[in-house]
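Protein of interest.
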Amino acid sequence: MTLPAHSYALDATWRTLLHDLGLGPGDVLRRAGLPDDLLARPNASLPSQDYYRLWQAIEDMTDGPLALRLCEVVRAEAFSPPLFAALCSPDLVTAARRIGKYKRLIAPIRLDAAMADGRLTVEFTWLDAPFVPPDSLVLMDLLFTVALVRMGTREPVRPIEVVTAVPPARVDAYEAFLGAHIRKGGGHRVVFAAADATRPFLTSNDALWTAFEPDLRRRLADLDGAASTVERVRAALLEALPSGLVGMDAIARRLGAGKRTLQRRIEAEGTSYQALLNATREALARHYLERTTLPPTEIAFLLGFDEPNSFFRAFRTWTGTTPEVVRRGGSPAT
């Protein structure tokens, strides 16, 4: 299966999850305005906006916080192939890196796993701007990382830091599950002590991983081959913006192409590099302004601007209004 760009994979594991939540698939799909037979279709997938509507329907029909409920009921047999294969890893460091490599097979999400200074940082970036994932979906990915290491080690591992731009209003239950505080900040990440990140997985199974990996590699190659240049540039920009290295030369190097070749391919798809950069920055700016309390000065740097005034001028050019007006829920100037 080659997952279309900006899509989420759906497979038979969804029926198991809905059953364990006490929900009927038909009821959920009808509430989301989706076909009744969707989950019975082989290799089904949904574009981001439809998937988020499905997620919202599940959340509306679930008693209690959805992310917590899913972590309570999820079992290894309900994992998609990339996640099940990761559970075969020797430890969390290896599992996170494997998931990071193959995550795009099931969702438009980048997962970065970096070990430094005695800590493993697992960070999530959504690659489907201008669409914005539901807050509970973001929280689910953060919590699931903790659930994964607990399943693998059979130990009550606690992260040492959890950061998200969309912390829940009622945080107590989440922090009780995590055994750690949730801090508000830019991005979405979970940090583990090295001792926990390298704690052996009792579920480790190298033979099973060896059986899984060739198909995962093939599917990833198919996905990369099917992606348009515009989609690949947008994904690269989302990853590069916080560093400020968003010139066409830098993005071309990320994608393994020459600058002129990249420009020619973008133009052949009916747009320009600057238009893509502006649209990506505007979508992220709106997300931060509407969904977080990050100050505009910090948002400016997350979008790769050298100083806030450049961001303010650019934002007015894109929208005809100011960041403050958008944050208050106002309409653009006319």
About this structure: The chain has a mean pLDDT of 87. The two ends are 46 Å apart (CA to CA). The first strand starts at residue 7 and ends at 10. The longest helix spans residues 206-226.
